[in-house]
């Protein structure tokens, strides 16, 4: 019986050491678009104030539905996309190359409705998740 108690106490004492050594893959908890959909969102630049992401969606391709931070969007190509919100009806958006505007934080996916790739740049302030 004493041996059983001793083994139980040893297990409890060593468990926190084992748990602290366990490494969780960071991408399990990473909700940034770059981590969730790297095929379409690519980090171009990052510092302590902003994150710059290049978005490239091929003809008739779809992105994952995810939370996109508040950002400034600048279109590199003409685009005709379907915005697929997580909790609303889908809508379409058409922009010309060179368009620049502010986009509030929201949870959505995108589908390129065009026959050519759609590309744009997102510039998200680092505090966008708090203010957007």
Provide keyphrases for this structure:
five-stranded antiparallel sheet, 9 strands, single chain, globular, alpha+beta, four-stranded antiparallel sheet
The name of the CATH topology is Jelly Rolls
Kindly provide the name of the CATH class.
Mainly Beta
Q: Assess the beta-strand content as a share of residues.
A: 35-45%
Describe the global form: globular
Sequence stretches where pLDDT stays below 50 over 5 or more residues: 17-22
Write the CATH homologous superfamily: Jelly Rolls
CATH architecture classification: Sandwich
Helix count, DSSP H or I runs of 4 or more residues: 3
Number of domains: 1
Biggest β-sheet: strands ordered side by side in the sheet = 1-2-9-4-7
Q: How many strands, which pairing sense, and closed or not: the largest β-sheet?
A: 5 strands, antiparallel
Termini distance? 60 Å
Task: Please explain how this structure is put together.
This protein is 21% helix and 40% strand. Mean pLDDT is 82; it is low at 17-22. It is an alpha+beta fold and 132 residues long. The chain has one domain: Sandwich (Jelly Rolls). The longest helix has 20 residues, at 2-21. It contains 3 helices and 9 strands; from the N terminus they run ααβββββββββα. It has helices spanning 2-21, 33-36, 128-131; strands at residues 41-46, 50-57, 66-68, 71-75, 79-85, 91-95, 100-103, 106-112, 118-125. The termini are far apart. The protein is globular, with a radius of gyration of 22 Å.
């Amino acid at each position: 019986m004493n041996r059983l108690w001793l083994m139980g106490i040893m297990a409890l004492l060593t468990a926190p050491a084992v748990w602290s050594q366990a490494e969780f893959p960071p991408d399990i908890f990473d909700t940034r678009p770059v981590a969730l959909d790297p095929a379409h969102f690519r980090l171009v630049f990052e510092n302590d104030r902003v994150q710059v992401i290049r978005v490239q969606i091929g003809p008739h391709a779809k992105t994952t539905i995810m939370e996109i931070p508040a950002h400034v969007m600048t279109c590199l190509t003409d685009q005709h996309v379907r915005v697929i919100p997580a909790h609303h009806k889908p809508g379409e958006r058409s922009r010309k190359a060179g368009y620049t505007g502010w986009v509030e934080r929201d949870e959505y996916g995108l589908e390129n409705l065009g026959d050519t790739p759609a590309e744009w740049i997102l510039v998200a302030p680092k505090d966008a998740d708090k203010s957007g």
